[in-house]
Amino acid sequence: MDPSRPKLIDFHGVSMTHIFTDNWDKVQNFKAKPDDIVVATYPKAGTTWICYILDLLYFYQTCPEREKSIPIYDRVPFLELICPPYPTGTDMADTLPTSPRIIKTHLPVQFLPKSFWEQNCRIVYVARNAKDNVVSYFHFDCMEKGQPEPGDWSSFLQRFKDGKMVFGSWFDHVCGWWEKKQTYSKIHYMFYEDLVKDTGRELKNLCSFLGLSTSEEERKKILQCVQFDVMKANPMTNLSNEPSLDFSVSQFLRKGKVGDWKNHFTVAQNEQFDEHYKQKMKNTTLQFHTEI
Ligand code: A3P
């Protein structure tokens, strides 16, 4: 047990840690700009991947040097993060020198600052199937000292089912954003599994959502950069400079696969999970693939 790890707290009905709630007033009063692009995800759904894709779409041609010199977490502020001595996510967003701003958040839909809705901002949401998402989250929490103590795999899985994770229940998160998409047309709801299966098609669809006329040649270059192995070897995207991550425990870009859950769930855990899943997802039209 590491006593320096933060504890889970109940925050307006959602499990959180203080590093995502201590700057709450500034987060809630954040002033969005109409061309801001929000990347919203449940943790470990492929956030870094989509942030990097968006960054390349907007800035690869005009400022290629930043790809070699600025880590992705400095190019795409994490809105609700407050982790002294580093600048807060809101301050980073307020002082970003480039435009449009790409802003990352893991907030459930009800917590997104209202200014983003008022400014009619574009939002890119990425969802990942629950089984791979929880496996990735487990390995991440083992290596990230800024997260609560993960415990063993089976207790972690139970906590995930109970929604006792940082940023709350996966079920509420993916369904909440899905419901919002039915009434707010500027949400582009993507799936990690589709990105793995056909990154090129997803990139093309993303460009149409963003109203970008990126050439095929440019898209090809971007596709090259965002391959798993290329991102893993790139110090600007593999988070190797992030001091809170213990790379002797796991990797940030760990496997990048659909279906790794099969290496973690026992037969009994899988059956119980499927039963729980059926109940929790019975009122939504949202569907996931757990293999491709
Ligand atoms: P795994 O732990 O299953 O490997 P986030 O950025 O939201 O924290 O998500 C991290 C997960 O996205 C990790 O999953 C990571 O490997 C995966 N990922 C990141 N870049 C990827 C890429 N280019 N291709 C496939 N998966 C990627």
Structural commentary:
The radius of gyration is 18 Å and the shape is globular. A four-stranded parallel sheet has the order 4-3-5-6, sandwiched between helices. A two-stranded antiparallel ribbon has the order 1-2. It has 292 residues and is an alpha/beta fold. It is built from 14 helices and six strands. The protein has one domain (9-280): 3-Layer(aba) Sandwich (Rossmann fold). The longest helix has 14 residues, at 130-143. A hairpin with a 2-residue loop joins strand 1 and strand 2 (14-16). The mean pLDDT is 97. Adenosine-3'-5'-diphosphate binds at residues 41, 43-49, 132, 136, 139, 196, 226, 228, 231, 253-256, 260.
Concise summary:
Belongs to the sulfotransferase 1 family. It is an enzyme of class 2 (transferase). Helix content is about 40%, strand content about 10%.
Rg measurement, Å: 18 Å
Q: In the CATH scheme, what's the topology name?
A: Rossmann fold
- Summarize model confidence as the mean pLDDT: 97
Structure summary, number of beta strands = 6
Amount of helix: 40-55%
Please identify the top-level CATH class.
Alpha Beta
The CATH homologous superfamily name equals P-loop containing nucleotide triphosphate hydrolases
- Small molecules bound: adenosine-3'-5'-diphosphate
SSE run: EEHEHHHHEHEHHHEHHHHH
How far do the termini sit from each other?
Answer: 37 Å
Examine the secondary-structure arrangement and name the CATH architecture.
3-Layer(aba) Sandwich
For the record, the count of structural domains works out to 1
Q: What structural class should be given to the helix and strand makeup?
A: alpha/beta
Task: Estimate what percentage of residues fall within beta strands.
Answer: 5-15%
Widest sheet: strand order?
4-3-5-6
> Main sheet, how many strands, which sense, barrel?
4 strands, parallel
Contiguous runs where pLDDT drops below 50 for at least 5 residues: none
Distinct helical segment count: 14
Structural shape: globular
